[in-house]
Amino acid sequence: MTLKLYYASGACSFVPHSMLEMAGATFEPVAIKLHKAEQKGPEYLAINPRGQVPVLADEGEVITQIMAIIAYIDSKFPENTFIPKDPLARARFVETLAWMNNTVHPTFTHIFMPDKFTGDAAAQQAIKAHAVAQYRTLMGELQALVKKAHAAGNDWLGGVHVGPLDTYALTLLRWGTIAGINPEDFPELWAHVQRTAQVPAVARAMERERLQLSLYRPA
């Protein structure tokens, strides 16, 4: 076994976790417990000094950053066509993936970890409240992408195959439910995410991570 994926349950590492399952890859999943600060321990920092997940190790080579890992898995298992080959379709894929990673994802960080941005308790609450409103808008944008894909005759965000855009959408919507956003407010997106969760490879990753699709609780 040469592949080893370091992941945290419910984190964005779910995306490469699902990809490896879709590819039928032989890999060793290594759970990093963020709530126990295992990512800050010397053993993990020796693997990734930034103390982040995911990390993919392949025959002694360590790859960090989700976009790099997604590209690597796509290249390693080209028969799965995780990323479209057509130049324009590929650009659109990267465009959406980058937006998920550099805009939607950091917005949730402001909700989940406002202490990263200020030590003032009152300011933390203000940051969180503002980010929740922003995140709701971003969920609307994500739903629009789903509707656009379906209108173009594509079952999935990346085209004809389920892939990393769909599992990232699942992850982002699930985070929204943690922030108190009702997934039923975005019916097309919610239906898409539920269908993604039913894909056998995705379901296996969810079972390993013990994920509940929605954590929304009405106030």
Shape-level CATH architecture of the largest domain: Up-down Bundle
List the strand order in the largest sheet: 2-1-3-4
Poorly predicted residue ranges: none
Q: How many strands appear in the DSSP assignment? A: 4
Describe the structure.
This protein has 219 residues and is an alpha+beta fold. The protein has 2 domains: 3-80, Glutaredoxin (3-Layer(aba) Sandwich); 87-199, Glutathione S-transferase Yfyf (Class Pi), Chain A, domain 2, CATH 1.20.1050.10. The chain has helices at 14-23, 42-45, 66-76, 87-112, 121-151, 164-178, 187-197, 200-209, and strands at residues 3-7, 27-31, 55-58, 61-64. The longest helix has 31 residues, at 121-151.
What is the fold's blueprint, element by element?
Blueprint lengths: L2 E5 L6 H10 L3 E5 L10 H4 L9 E4 L2 E4 L1 H11 L10 H26 L8 H31 L12 H15 L8 H11 L2 H10 L10
Parallel strand pairs: 1-2
Antiparallel strand pairs: 1-3, 3-4
